[in-house]
Amino acid sequence: MELSTLTAISPLDGRYASKTAALREIFSEYALMKARVTVEVEWLIALSEFKLPELPELSEKNKLYLRGLAANFSVEDCQNIKNIEAVTNHDVKAVEYWVKQQMETVPELKAAKEFVHFGCTSEDINNTSHAMMLFSGRQILCSDLETICKKLKEFAHQWAGVAMLARTHGQHASPTTVGKEFANVAARLDLAIDSIEKVEILAKMNGAVGNYNAHVVAYPDRDWEAFARHVVEDQLQLKLNSYTIQIEPHDYMAELFNAISPANTILIDIDRDIWVYIALNYFKQQLKEGEVGSSTMPHKVNPIDFENSEGNLGMANSFFNFLAGKLPISRWQRDLTDSTVLRNLGVAFGYSLVGYKSLQKGLSKLQLHEEVINADLEHSWEVLAEAIQTVMRRYGVPNPYEQLKALTRGKEGITPEVIHEFVAQLDIPEDAKKSLQELTPQTYIGLAKKLAEKI
User: Fold this and answer.
1) Is the pLDDT of residue 35 over 60?
2) 23: three-class secondary structure by DSSP
3) Phi, psi of 439 (to 5 degrees)
4) In angstroms, rounded to a whole number, what is the distance separating the alpha carbons of residues 27 and 117?
5) Which residues have a catalytic role annotated?
6) pTM to 2 decimals?
């Protein structure tokens, strides 16, 4: 059966293909091959600048030609490498052979072709390629996270002063504002994004078991660690890890995935909260012509975007948690279990991106239902019990908490009159009494409005 979005096994390349398209240039096998070509080329160019007696520095024209192999790398080029791999049964060796083939027609490059992959183990090429892929993938995720955070801050400012009944343990609690609740999430997400961006992306270029063995035996008078640092940090824009086995140990990957996962969890949290607020009719959703909410119940407008986001972010975190727990573990100096696992980096990023896109779509359709929110407050005067007993404490009234507990706990129909009558008999200053008499559930919001406005 021909592969298409309808026949793909994974929804990331099927149903959600449009949402994950940006990741194909980063995490596909084509992208991995392109990254490998980039590393092989930059290593060779750097070697030519290292003043090795047998390798004169390449001309600027030929450096440009080599870098063009990566910059202009096509799907057809990738297929040609796969054809070589069909013979070698080794994907990185196939890349080496393909690069050498491209050098055959240029005399200066042909003379230098045996320095392609010089001193390298396959993992020198792979780990740097994966690092570059993760660097780019992080940018994609953080860009969408920033977009979500910006929208949350817009809501925080727009609804900063809209009082709303809070619910702790699902029960009526002291009021907040709609804007402050969005500000809370935005503040958390800001910190999470910062944590993701601070993770250093590491790479190694130190040979078969991490000791520059082959490099030193060939050119013992050269500072190979400094050279590797130059290639990794100056040319590939990564950070050198000097202490490795055959593979870069992937601890930074675990750190990165363990930073992305909390960001996803924060978004799952807001997905679920908004879902419930929609159920309470605090939010309405914009209708789209032609859409249906149920195959049998015509009236329904389901919160499907938030449900889709929650489900996909849960999938993403399952992958990130597995990757973070597995990748730093390797038997002795190398086993191959990480190789097949690393081919799934794009899966974790893909489910994250689908979750982000769905949440963005859901947020774009939200409409605040202030009448319902205000009606809940009007029927919840018992929430002023906290305010009253706290003022009573200030003025030394005996057993303030217990008095308000007796008045309100588990009681229905606590009206303004009940509250006002209780306050009227209190032995507190008249100005304090007047302030409490003027207090309403809508105005008992503390600094919520100010906090929402300054996020």
Assistant:
1) yes
2) helix
3) -70, 140
4) 23
5) 169, 294
6) 0.95
